[in-house]
Amino acid sequence: MEKKANNKFKNFFDIRLISLVVGSIYIVCVVFSLRKTIIINIDNETTTVTTFSQKYGDVFKDKNIRVGNKDKVSVDLQSAIKDGKNIYIKKAVEVNVNVDGKCMKVLSSADDVYDMLCSENIKLGDEDIVTPSKHTKLKQNMSVNIKRVKTMIINEKQEIKFTTDIKNSDEYEKGTSKVIQNGENGEKLISYKVVYEDGKEVSREKLSEKIIKEPVNKIIIKGTMNFIKTSSGRRLAYIKKLRVKSTAYTVDENNDGKPDAPYYGRTFTDTIARRNVNGYSTVAVDPRVIPLGTKLYVEGYGLAIAEDTGSAIKGNKIDVYVNSYYETIKWGIKTVNVYILK
Asked: G5 domain spans which residues (predicted)?
């Protein structure tokens, strides 16, 4: 009887022991099934973590790994952990972006400058200049400068100033002038290629130039004619002024009772010598100096025409005609101004 009781106790103990062992094995299996190992790579620095947490976010919290809003994480923090998973975290860096007259501090985990600008919705024009280049890797406290570049074709109208032409004329008195044509400015159209950087012009290249309206030059007539004022107040235009020695001759008889003029008043040009105080009188000249037929004004004598010559009249010398021998004596020999009239 006692032996049977001992056998029953032993069987009960064996069953309890087996149950305990099986339970322990089960618990160990469950524990091992819950434990997971993940590899966390933060900016190329790797850490291996073993955890019983169910979500990646819980692991980061347990390990005091802070993930900012701009950090780049390769997994969803609320997703379930997979054993042996490699997780990559790229921490955002602070970048100074200078654009459009503003300086912005940007947190970004982008790989390079271009990706950072895209993520921040900073648009670039085709000609914009980015410094450093768009494919430069981002670094902490990097400064990125964007220069807005714009090229435009501009057409400008410009005034063409008229010029003034001065023409000499012996039709007008010396010292006077007259505008015979008013000047008028012209106009031209010039095309430029203009480059602007951040709104400021930095270069300008002329592409073409076209005259729309030709200028009209101003024309001024400048008088070159000399005038002399006679004793009677009359103004006479003259071409040339000569300083000559003068004598006088006449057809009247001299003290010897002979005519002073050998041809009795008939001139070399076959006219009759005359003294006309109200018109043109006759003078003898050297045709090499004063051409025959030239109208003159003789100082102290008046208007005259070169109609005669004389054997003694050579070079700068003239012989004025008078009506009497007395007047020839009175005239004598003197130097006078002779004006060749126009």
From this structure: 146-226
